[in-house]
Design goal:
Largest sheet: 8 strands, mixed
Radius of gyration: 21 Å
CATH topology of the domain at 25-174 and 221-255 and 288-327 and 353-371: Rossmann fold
CATH architecture of the domain at 25-174 and 221-255 and 288-327 and 353-371: 3-Layer(aba) Sandwich
Mean pLDDT: 93
Distance between the termini: 37 Å
CATH class of the domain at 25-174 and 221-255 and 288-327 and 353-371: Alpha Beta
Strand content: 15-25%
Structural class: alpha/beta
Helix content: 25-40%
Amino acid sequence: MPPASAGELAHSRQLAQRLRAEMAATGGAISFARFMELALYAPGLGYYAAGKHKFGAQGDFVTAPELGSLFARSLARPCQSILSQLDGGDILEAGGGSGALAADLLLELEILDQLPSRYLLLELSNELRDRQHATLRHKAPHLLERVQWLSALPENFRGIVLANELLDAMPAERFKITEDGVQQMYVAPDNDHFQWREQTAETFIQSRIEPLALPPGYISEINLQAEAWVRSIADVLTQGVLLLIDYGFPRAEFYHPQRATGTLMCHYQHRAHDDPLILVGLQDITAHVDFTAIAEAGCDAGLSLLGYTSQAAFLISCGLEQLMSASDPNNVRTHLALTQQIKKLTSPHEMGEMFKVIALGRDVREPIPGFSAHDRRGRL
């Protein structure tokens, strides 16, 4: 693990003090979901709430929009189709990262003559808002007037709600199966560090986990906040599509016997590991998405399941290869960069198979471009 600087360590100690204070105030421990929430989002201290550079080569991890414009340009095709079907509408991107997806998507939709009336960015971090504004001002200054920033969901929305790598960063509960039943994982102080502590799981968590019949010793996660967020989108979506791209599995694969230690993953300076209790405030903490739970949450809230597939199948169905073929092979540097993007986005050993795309909607006709070649709804 690369060493943290003195300034980073001082920042981490400050957040650790904040965590220990809450633990002391609540009987000595907090649920892992609360620990993850504070580690990522505590005002001024959490990983996403402080000024640490997160995305790209200089950060801790690279997302699909940071690789180049191909991801957004491919995504523009289903967006064009949906907006055309709605005879206009808005795009709302939740968790806009650096702003790269917003800028490249708007530029491609301009070429396709299907710009949204507004491009709304739901972003709570002031630091990320500033970076998104700078990215859009640099890449698409003439479209900046269409962009608005939100701190909460609008009361009513018509159009496309888009989220790339959002659900995995929502605080998840962690549990362990023992001979005594489902135990919920809590976090407690351990001198200058933190340690796991087990308590009998809340009744609702037990009711969700017990039917899975997992063996003793099995550890995993359940993301109730992600499910609640999908329901909140359903509450405000009057017509349109919720399009989610993230890494994860259908439930049968999420809780597979070979995945008995869970799906938690942390990223620090492009190093991946599975210990969320270290480097608090300095590292990203994620949990894979149970896409069956996401589909159930949306359908129970009145949305229709419109498609589910791998990122590779989705992007190829959206015309990724045609975009590549339109480039000039004699421009070696540009052509090579596009080839590298496609490999990263579609290779089964990279993002292509681990990342999935799911579409939920209201009053929208099928099919949606991207799901025609390999729709996996039957696996959910």
